Prior knowledge:
Elements: H1 2-34, H2 60-75, H3 82-106, H4 114-135, E1 140-142, E2 151-153, H5 158-179, H6 185-204, H7 209-232, H8 241-258, H9 264-268, H10 270-289, H11 300-306, H12 311-337
Antiparallel strand pairs: 1-2
Amino acid sequence: MLQDTLIPMIISLMAILLLTLVCGLAGLPWLRRLKVGQTVRDDGPQSHLVKSGTPTFGGLFFLVPLAGLGLAALFIGVIPDQLAVLVLLMVLFGLIGFIDDLIKVRINKKGLSVSQKTVMMLLASSLFAVWFLFGSGEDAVFIIPFVRQPLVITGWFRIPYAVFTVLVLYFVSNSVNLTDGVDGLASSVTVFASAALGLAGLMLLPGQPPALAGSWLSFAIAAGCLGFLAFNRHPARVFMGDTGSQALGAALAGIALLCGVPWLILLAGFIYVAESLSVIIQVAYFKRTGGRRIFRMSPIHHHFELGGWSENKIVLVFTLITILGSAAGLLLLWAGRS
């Protein structure tokens, strides 16, 4: 089964990489003509003010090929049905991000309110959770490292696990969004985090359609982000915007849940988690102490930026951390399954 899957998978990944580049070459002039430049927030690093006017919506460069080829693969029977749901999840979160980006560039630079965005994201997450635990036709599992038999989520335990699923989707999607604050950072980190999830899916084969679907989409995301880096590396010619970052986060979380390894996000997605925790810690400490800060600025990439690190150095160091975290997670999974 694995050998029969590898060739079409490799072909599709090459197609996604190529199509992302084509979409970027064709779409970047179009975005410039539409004048959908992003307004950099006033309370961010002053060095970022020169980026105001850089086109956003760049996430469409990889989101459109991913959705298109994913559905095409489904219709010709190359990939299990689970892929359709993962692609739909990614598109739904991408649509929420698209609405937010559109409001930012056309109506109000603050975009959707926190409550509006939260309701939309929780609704999309809940739909996935209901399918995942009650309508997919496959038992949800949780793979515990060093335990031979995975924990099967059945009976009443599906209800709290559904809540857990919603929270994971919400947290990871927002975390990837927070990571997208330095040229090339979110896309570089995601190349390796998604590749790690893809390898995890291959480890969980053969004969597991959810793992196969998750593996295919993971590698496809890595290919799309790699192509997007041609336009997003420093100095960025386009930003992925919430359109791309929200979609990426939801897809990675959905893949990890479907494959039974949501804990892998803590290692392969260590940077995502650190970015979110830095904001949570900063806000809580600020309120508790009446205005004092732990970090120079949050998310944490801005802390290092204000400390003198260049954007390229931040991307390099954070990407190396992602590679190490991904390797640790895969070794943990392999050791537990061998």
